[in-house]
């Protein structure tokens, strides 16, 4: 299953009588942090809603427990054997976090809608303004025995990053990449801006088309990565402000380019500040 799906492909897969309970029909899931502004204003017909900061995370940077997540998702009708298509309001940063969580939970058939809801509008897909859709499934714990779920393959925490920084291992053994804007990285305009010492700046929006928020062509993405001297074998940790932009870059490196050792500091900059850890300002890492 391709990690990216186009709007016209999703339209064709849905047809006119899409039913989330038909095994070969994708389940469209909108990931949102403000449903009233996003999902409830309009959404893809028969799509489901996941609130990023209540259904998947306990606020910024804290993932819910495996069992709690699986019970919630499966009882909503989102099962691991189904093809799940993720989208969000604008640029897929929330979809990217959800994608990582779904993959860590063992979902094998997960895609992100390229261009997200903007692409759906461009392709004149049907819209729904109802209060939402709820589907039901049954959770049987016996189906989830002997399942290995390791969030550590996808995410790192403050202690891990802090140890790397204080032991001067950033740049030698591990690359730390700040995916925020140069203004945030440099930190000239606001006291809360700056970067983690040793981090290089590779802005997330280098990988998106500015007008449509679609991912750039593979050759363009590869050129950006090559300009930063990154290799698929590099051990890389990504961060941003709250995890979304770095998750999107993780998706680019891992799913589109085949990098194998990339993880996200999900708490990111806000978590680093909350711990009172050292920061650096200016253009140098």
TrEMBL record:
SMART domains the UniProt entry points to: RHOD
SUPFAM superfamilies named among the record's database cross-references: Rhodanese/Cell cycle control phosphatase
Alphabetic keyword roster: Repeat
Gene3D superfamilies xref list: Rhodanese-like domain (3.40.250.10)
InterPro entries reported in the protein's UniProt record: Rhodanese-like_dom, Rhodanese-like_dom_sf, Thiosulfate_sulfurtransferase
Pfam families membership: Rhodanese
Domain Rhodanese intervals: 34-129, 170-281
PROSITE patterns registered for this protein in UniProt: RHODANESE_3
Official protein name in the record: Sulfurtransferase
């Amino acid at each position: 299953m391709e990690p990216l799906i186009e709007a016209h492909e999703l339209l064709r897969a849905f047809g006119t009588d899409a039913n989330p309970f038909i095994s070969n029909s994708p389940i469209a899931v909108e990931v949102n942090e403000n449903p009233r502004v996003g999902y409830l204003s309009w959404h893809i017909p028969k799509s489901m809603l996941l609130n990023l900061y209540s259904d998947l995370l306990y606020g910024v940077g804290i993932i819910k427990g495996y069992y709690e997540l699986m019970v919630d998702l499966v009882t909503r009708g989102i099962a691991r054997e189904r093809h799940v298509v993720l989208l969000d309001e604008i640029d897929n940063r929330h979809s990217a976090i959800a994608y990582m969580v779904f993959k860590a939970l063992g979902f094998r058939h997960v895609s992100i809608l390229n261009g997200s809801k903007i692409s759906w509008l461009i392709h004149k897909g049907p819209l729904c303004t109802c209060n939402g859709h709820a589907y039901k499934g049954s959770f049987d714990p016996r189906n989830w025995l002997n399942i290995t779920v390791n969030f550590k393959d996808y995410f790192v925490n403050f202690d891990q990053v802090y140890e790397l920084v204080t032991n001067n291992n950033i740049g030698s053994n591990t690359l730390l990449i700040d995916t925020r804007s140069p203004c945030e990285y440099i930190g000239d305009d606001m006291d809360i801006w700056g970067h983690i010492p040793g981090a290089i700046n590779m802005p997330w929006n280098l990988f998106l088309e500015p007008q449509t928020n679609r991912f750039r062509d593979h050759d363009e993405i590869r050129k950006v990565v090559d300009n930063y001297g990154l290799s698929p074998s590099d051990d890389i940790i990504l961060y941003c402000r709250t995890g979304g932009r770095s998750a999107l870059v993780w998706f680019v490196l891992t799913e589109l380019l085949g990098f194998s050792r990339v993880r996200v500091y999900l708490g990111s900059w806000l978590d680093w500040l909350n711990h009172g850890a050292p920061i650096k300002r200016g253009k140098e890492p």
